[in-house]
Design goal:
The complex is a heterotrimer. Chain A is α+β, with helices and mostly antiparallel strands. Helices cover 26% and strands 36% of the residues of chain A. Chain A has a 5-stranded antiparallel sheet, with no helix packed on it. In chain A, a hairpin with a 2-residue loop joins strand 1 and strand 2. The longest helix of chain A is centred in the first third of the chain and has 13 residues. In chain A, 31% of the residues are buried. Among the domains of chain B are: 255 residues, Dimethylsulfoxide Reductase, domain 2 (3-Layer(aba) Sandwich); 156 residues, Barwin-like endoglucanases, CATH 2.40.40.20. In chain B, the strands form 8 sheets. In chain B, strands 7-6-20-19-18-8-9-15 form an 8-stranded mixed sheet. In chain B, strands 25-30-27-29-28-31 form a 6-stranded mixed β-barrel. In chain B, strand 2 and strand 3 form a beta hairpin. The two termini of chain B are 34 Å apart. Chain C folds into 2 domains: 189 residues, Alpha-Beta Plaits (2-Layer Sandwich), CATH 3.30.70.20; 81 residues, Immunoglobulin-like, CATH 2.60.40.10. By secondary structure, chain C is α+β, with helices and mostly antiparallel strands. The chains are: A alpha+beta, B alpha/beta, C alpha+beta.
Chain lengths: 164, 896, 281
């Protein structure tokens, strides 16, 4: 059984195994924490047009088979709401820099709370390659002035994400 | 001469030094830097050194601020419509007279109590969703008072039907460009970072498409970048301007100006692509790596696609009126030299994107820039405004920053959340009210994602009542929205039981209200802001790179509020107190204390205490704090942390520019594939049957253009770009000095007629002489203007600026009346760009022109209303019914 | 020490900042040296503008900020009685707001129409070069309002008697263009780069080829003997700027492999001479 997969070079007719193998290959080097079938299709395959339902099912199975966990529905800015969306089991070891340039948004989650090695908790709404801007969270409120954290500093490397 | 008191503030024309003498504003000046202010940056390019003057600039509008503050049309007292009746059921209130009724003077107490009573009645009868409210853009400046801050706090706390703004100034880029290159979080605009230096070092040719930088001034960057463009011009860089009007920048700077017929820009872009593809003069390696389905698009350009039409320069000549030979010359210059360009101010604006073909025009322009290797040195999407050196690591909020609003934490303690889910859409607010229903796609400003363009909205929302009350705040849509005669009809509808207008001036919409609340200008209240800063993480981030200096200003109160006007904060607090949530609204803070919050949540405390900041009045941020970055010879800063826009992409490195997305760190764009999409997958994904915005961007004949049926009746294309002598309606009615500029207006019999520009051939055909009154008209409306005969428009085009703050119907309160104030938006189509594209298209407008007579009635027609109120006795002296709570809130409190 | 303003029309964009700054300073506010200007009707910093060119293909504008020139031998001073107009040692020409009352002749005397009549006060009024501000030790600014407002360095202020001043450097580096109406009059306001006339055109290959001709040689010979030459640029355009006015020119266009073409032109105004379609030999 072959399935139609449109790519810019033309129409490919691939078996389930070939599609799955391609999915696995795309995922191996993926530095992202989350993915979904459309991300793999458009960014990974450079897919043209929407994949058919059968191809979507095959790809979802392949993503799961590569060890990525189903996290249900997620809203993507690029793709809309996609279910299932998957979480990368190997995210901690995935690349966090390329060509000598760090990937700040892959190292930290924008808009989340982090606890530093000194126990202080910060909400970090702004993340740039040159700084992170944070507000300290204490007793249910934001206190003090805006704090600057160097994303490449020791302190930042030791921060752990927490829920407040 | 005794020393005058000096304060500072900011307006859309730039930052001001305000001299006050004996409690009266004496003069408005720019900020002239002192020796203890930061040193400037120096760009070293082509053997010379370039540094800005040690002073800020103000546009001509900034110099009108004093005149505007004391203007004849200030609202002096609260007012109530003479024939307004507070009927218990909201009916029979003589609403059909709105726009022609006079007003009576009221006390604040009476006006505010009426507002509170009506809101309670409306809430009880219909629910909170029955009140809607909207502001204009930038009628005031300052983080406390701005619409996303103060207005949002008040109305979110109240609960109301929010009106979504449309991206009026840059529709085609907002709804189109993301489908080619992403950047939906920048609302379709490119990254400007450090582009001035890049261009000064590398550029040979600048493409200024649909752009008049000296007029649109980077938005609110005063005249900061004017000098930059002279530097570039004097380097010998060739400037190519494309605009149906040989505009105020092109007529001075253009080495080549071409004036296409309105709405045909996409055809010229396709023809340029044809030249590059057939001659092989584009960056094939770059496209192979970064272009998606380029070959299919190229086939289409060559005439091998479905329509079988090759997009030759000759084909484009027939459509646009621009010679094929000129198109080819431009194409070859672009391809063979280091070229940077874009559309409109900031690269992703421009009148061409406000035509029916606007989205595909935007997509094609981005595509062409991609074809030449966008992101390589000197090859970028930039148009000469924004992109100045900036200290990105000095944080101060801009008005769209989520962190810089009193409606949001951490600036406030308890954020305000609107409990009403029903929304309306600005462009068609009148239709929604008049028809009782409206449906549309999209979130207005779709910065949150590509999918936000396609969300579905219906009004009334399920379970919600219709809107029966309107609170309008600052400005006049008669001059900026579409088919604006409809606004009169809306105001006169009995559907709107209650209309409040809160404004500084007696503007066109103000004259249609039931209750008028006089606000004061931002020279009469305390605030804080940064020049040109629209946000570092909000939309179009880092617009303050349009300035030569980063200037943060303590916007001190120069004078007390004039007459009986009050700050918007006071007005909202009073209403909130009467509704029972005054304390929650103000959180016990005065305006100055709120302003201090913004100082607190910024990097300012590191360099200046609050007292120092108030004393000095402003702070100039050096582009770098590091000693080693200073040129010892000159003391100027020659090095700073640069993050050049889009260069990371061309160099295939993770994105390092401010305000970026995680996929950009993976070398991907914000399109579905992460590449430049020459066939747009996002269009195929969400709206494959969109007729206007097709998967392959193409020129198409407009539903209103030179080939449409209406052209048989109305043969001229009216283009109405952003005005040179105003900003978003906010100056023209108020400062009559502007009426004295011959290229702006001509006063006849006390009315300031707006100048329109027509070609000598048309003038001759129609027997029109220079300075004659003419009528511009079509099926939607009629406007009287004064003709300026010029070769700066071709015979098919008539040019007249939009955004008139003056709307003077010769018959007050009559929709469709002849308009003599210059609000030519009464002529523009009410139809949105497309079924899936909720964009306005004022530059797709067919009109005719005829010689006419000036209105014999003297003046503007409505001055008598204000004069009558002035003559009235003082309003009945009832003591102000403030609660004790309100007294505590509004005592004079100095921020500690 | 003479105060002067250099007005560089080549840099002026007619942004009207100077115009407005002047109104902001003087409308409704008097000073030690002047009565208040009425709210409307006077333009002490007048922007003289005209459109240049007779073909849509090449249109430019001339924009000349024109304040009072503060002439060395002012016509207004000659026409005034009782010392109503005087020239200060620093060169600034002032109309005394008390002595000049009723003297309408002062208005009519000015050859560049820089003096205005205040009907209400029955007083002639004009630019003071903001001398009242320059005289005031408490005033923080160091320049006349118009100069301070200019974003393009099209207005430069300084000491004309100081050879090292910025203003003298700017004057030396640019073309001094006396306002015609002032004849040989020296003045403290020095105009630079006021355009005279241009001749321009475009050269194309034969029409059916739909191409511009790059590198065609264009020679314009003035009746006075001066020869101007250039090759058409990447757009096929040629242009000679700042030509002497009211002169006959012969334009000759040559390109290898094509028949030469020539035209006659006259610089009474700015002209787009022709779209030239070459013929192959």
């Amino acid at each position: 059984m072959k399935y139609l997969v449109h790519v810019p070079e033309g129409n490919l007719f691939l078996t389930k195994e070939e599609i799955s193998a391609k999915v696995a290959e795309v995922l191996k080097t993926c530095p992202s924490e989350f993915t979904c079938v459309y991300r793999v299709w458009y960014e990974g395959f450079e897919g043209c047009g929407r994949p058919s339902t059968e191809v979507v099912n095959i790809m979802n199975e392949a993503i799961a088979a590569a060890g990525w966990t189903d996290v249900g529905a997620m809203r993507w800015e690029k793709f809309g709401v996609i279910k299932p969306s998957f979480k990368n089991p190997d995210y901690a070891n995935a690349a966090k820099e390329a060509n000598g340039v760090p990937m700040i948004l892959h190292r930290f989650h924008q808009g989340k709370h982090y606890q530093g090695p000194d126990g202080r908790i910060f909400w970090i709404p702004v993340m740039e390659i040159f700084d992170m801007r944070a507000f300290e969270w204490k007793d249910g409120k934001y206190i003090g002035t805006m704090v600057e954290i160097d994303p490449m500093s020791e302190y930042a490397q030791q921060m752990v994400e927490v829920q407040v | 001469m005794a020393k005058e008191k000096i304060t500072h503030s900011i307006c859309v024309g730039g930052p001001m030094t305000i001299h006050v003498k004996d409690g009266v504003i004496r003069r408005i000046r720019p900020i002239v830097l002192t020796d203890d202010d930061a040193q400037g940056w120096v760009i070293k390019a082509r053997g010379k050194e370039y540094t800005p003057q040690r002073k800020t600039t103000l546009s001509l509008l900034g110099y009108c601020e004093k005149d505007k503050t004391y203007a004849y049309d200030r609202i002096k007292y609260p007012m109530i419509r003479e024939d307004f009746i507070e009927t218990p059921d909201g009916q029979n209130r003589n609403t059909e007279n709105r726009g022609k009724s006079g007003y009576r003077r009221a006390s604040w107490d009476e006006a505010l109590s009426l507002v509170a009573r009506e809101i309670k009645r409306l809430h009880a009868t219909y629910g909170k969703e029955t009140l809607t409210a909207i502001t204009s853009s930038h009628h005031s400046w300052g983080l406390v008072g701005y619409k996303i801050s103060l207005f949002n706090r008040f109305f979110n706390m109240m609960g109301y039907t929010r009106v979504m703004d449309n991206p009026d100034s840059w529709e085609g880029f907002h709804w189109g460009a993301p489908h080619t290159y992403g950047y939906y979080w920048r609302l379709g605009g490119p990254e400007p970072f450090d582009m001035l230096e890049d261009a000064m070092k590398n550029v040979e040719t600048m493409i200024m498409w649909s752009h008049d930088p000296d007029t649109t001034r980077g938005g609110y960057s005063a005249q900061e970048s004017a000098l930059w463009r002279w530097w570039m011009k004097e380097m010998g860089i060739q400037f190519i301007y494309v605009d149906p009007f040989n505009n105020f920048s092109s007529v001075k700077h253009a080495d080549k100006w071409i004036g296409p017929r309105m709405g045909t820009d996409a055809a010229i872009l396709e023809a340029i692509a044809y030249v590059w593809i057939t001659e092989g003069t584009y960056d094939k390696e770059y496209i192979a790596k970064h272009g998606h389905r380029f070959d299919e698009w190229a086939q289409h350009i060559l005439g091998l696609g479905v329509d079988g039409t090759a997009k030759t320069p000759k084909w484009a000549e027939e459509l646009s009126g621009v010679k094929a030979a000129d198109i080819k010359a431009i194409a070859r210059r672009w391809a063979s030299t280091v070229t940077t360009g874009g559309s409109g101010m900031r690269g992703g604006f421009g009148g061409a994107c406000r035509t029916v073909g606007g989205t595909d025009y935007a997509r094609l322009l981005v595509s062409l820039l991609a074809m030449q290797g966008m992101g390589k040195p000197g090859q970028n999407m930039w148009t000469g405004t924004c992109g100045g050196p900036m200290n990105y690591n000095f944080w101060f909020g801009g008005y769209s920053d989520p962190l810089a609003s009193i409606a949001k934490a951490p600036v406030c303690d308890v954020p305000a959340a609107n409990t009403v889910s029903q929304v309306l859409y600005r462009t068609n607010l009148p239709d929604a009210i008049l028809d009782g229903h409206y449906e549309w796609y999209g979130e207005g400003f779709c910065g949150g994602g590509l999918d936000f363009e396609f969300t579905r909205h219906v009004y009334p929302a399920p379970g919600c009542n219709k809107v029966h009350a309107f609170w309008r705040y600052g400005g006049s849509f008669y001059g900026t929205m579409l088919d604006t005669n409809k606004w009169t009809k809306m105001y006169q509808s009995s559907e709107l039981e209650f209309v409040i207008n809160q404004d500084i001036y007696f503007t066109p919409e103000t004259r249609h209200a039931d209750v008028i609340l006089p606000a004061c200008s931002n020279l009469e209240r305390v605030d804080i802001g940064e020049v040109g800063n629209s946000g570092n993480g909000g939309y179009c981030s880092h617009s303050q790179t349009g300035n030569s200096w980063q200037v943060i200003v303590y916007q001190d109160k120069a004078i007390e509020p004039l007459w009986d006007s009050r700050s918007d904060f006071w007005i909202f607090s009073q209403v909130a107190a009467r509704l029972g949530w005054g304390e929650a609204f103000t959180e016990g803070r005065s305006e100055e204390e709120w302003a201090k919050r913004f100082w607190q949540f910024s990097d300012l405390p590191k360099v200046m205490s609050w007292e120092q900041f108030k004393e000095k009045g402003y702070y100039i941020v050096p582009v770098s704090f590091k000693e080693e970055n200073v040129d010892p010879k000159t003391g100027l800063i020659e090095n700073w942390d640069r993050y050049p826009g889009f260069q990371w992409f061309a160099e295939e490195k993770p994105c390092n520019t401010p305000n970026h997305k995680d996929f950009q760190e993976e070398g991907l764009l914000g399109t579905l594939t992460g590449k430049f999409e020459f066939v747009s997958e996002s269009m195929l994904y969400w709206a494959p049957d969109d007729e206007i915005r097709t998967p392959i961007a193409r020129y198409k004949d407009s539903w209103e253009g030179h080939k449409s049926l209406s052209a048989d009746k109305f043969p001229y294309g009216m283009i109405s770009p952003h005005p040179r002598f105003d900003y978003h309606t906010h100056y023209q009615q108020h400062s009559k000095w502007l009426w004295e500029i011959p290229e702006n207006r001509k006063v006849i019999n006390g009315n300031p007629y707006l100048i329109c520009r027509i070609n000598p051939k048309v003038a001759e055909e129609k027997g029109i002489c220079e300075g004659d009154v003419v009528k511009l008209f079509n099926d939607r409306g009629q406007a009287l203007c004064v003709a300026h005969i010029t070769r700066r428009v071709n015979p098919e085009t008539i040019h007249v600026y939009t955004s008139s703050g003056i709307y003077n119907p010769v018959e007050l309160g009559k929709a469709g009346a002849v308009e003599k104030g210059g609000s030519i938006n009464v002529l523009t189509p009410g139809r949105l760009m497309g079924d899936y594209i909720p964009a306005m298209v004022p530059n797709s407008c067919n009109i005719d022109v005829v010689k006419a007579e000036a209105d014999p009635n003297p003046g503007q027609g409505w001055e008598y209303m204000l004069e009558a109120v002035d003559k009235q006795q003082e309003a009945t002296q009832r003591p102000m019914n403030t609660s004790i709570e309100a007294d505590i809130i509004f005592g004079e409190k100095e921020a500690k | 020490m003479r105060y002067g303003i250099a007005v560089n029309s080549a840099r002026c964009m007619a942004c009207y900042a100077c115009f407005m700054a002047c109104k902001d300073e003087h409308c409704g506010w008097g000073s030690a040296l002047s009565a208040p200007q009425p709210h409307m009707g006077q333009f002490w910093m007048n922007i003289v503008e005209w459109e240049r060119g007779d073909n849509e293909r090449r249109i430019k504008t001339a924009t000349v900020p024109t304040p009072c020139s503060h002439c060395d031998d002012p016509a207004c001073m000659k026409a005034a009685k009782n010392g109503a107009v005087y020239k200060r040692p620093d060169g600034v020409v002032i109309i005394d707001p008390e002595k000049a009352v009723g003297q309408k002749e002062i208005v009519d005397a000015c050859p560049i129409h820089a003096v205005y009549w205040n009907e209400e006060l029955q007083l002639p009024q004009k630019c003071t070069m903001c001398a009242e501000l320059l005289d005031d030790p408490d005033y923080p600014g160091k320049e006349p309002r118009c100069v301070e407002a200019c974003p393009n360095q099209a207005l430069v202020f300084g000491d004309l008697d100081d050879p090292n001043s910025e203003i003298n450097k700017v004057i030396a580096a640019n073309k001094v263009t006396q306002l015609e109406a002032l004849g040989n009059m020296g003045s403290s306001v020095v105009h630079l780069n006021v355009p005279t006339a241009f001749l321009a055109g475009t050269v194309f290959l034969p029409a059916e080829e739909e191409e511009v001709c790059i590198g065609a040689h264009v020679k314009a010979t003035c009746e006075c003997g001066t020869v101007y030459e250039m090759d058409t640029n990447w757009a096929g355009d040629w242009e000679f700027e700042d030509l002497p006015k009211n002169k006959k020119f012969t334009i000759e266009i040559t390109a290898d492999g094509f028949k030469p073409v020539s035209y006659e032109a006259f610089t009474d105004a700015d002209h787009y001479v022709a779209e030239t379609y070459l013929e192959r030999v």
